[in-house]
């Protein structure tokens, strides 16, 4: 090309970038946001199927949550030891970002997603689900 060979061109060092814990937590939060909304919709479908007496459909919703949503949530949740307070705050704010484009469905989606995922986090941590739902 233009009679030049590589030796005639000035050397440019390759660009290297090591993501910081903040970068990782924000990037993971953006993806986790979509996963959390998917989990909310999946559990909503399971609830509606249960109300309609469609036990087979309800089991399919639960199975899809266990097979797809739960592993994705685990994959895109940063390690608490590697993410400081600021990373957690930025990650939480970044998680809300994509939901803001839902228009009138923004608030119900944020509330439903947060509610469902808080319960899922507690159950994953070992709390008995029936104890969570009891009024005592």
What does this 3D model show about the protein?
The protein is mostly helical and 136 residues long. The chain has a domain at 21-76. It has five helices and no strands. It has helices spanning 21-51, 55-75, 85-96, 106-124, 129-133. The mean pLDDT is 75.
Overall helicity: 55-70%
Oligomer description: single chain
Low-confidence stretches: none
Q: Which overall shape is indicated by the principal axes computed on the Cα atoms? A: elongated
β-strand number: 0
Give the N-to-C terminal Cα separation: 78 Å
- What is the makeup of the main sheet? none
What is the radius of gyration computed over CA atoms, rounded to a whole number of angstroms? 22 Å
Q: From the helix content, strand content and strand pairing, which structural class follows?
A: mainly alpha
- Beta-strand portion reads under 5%
Task: Give the count of helical stretches.
Answer: 5
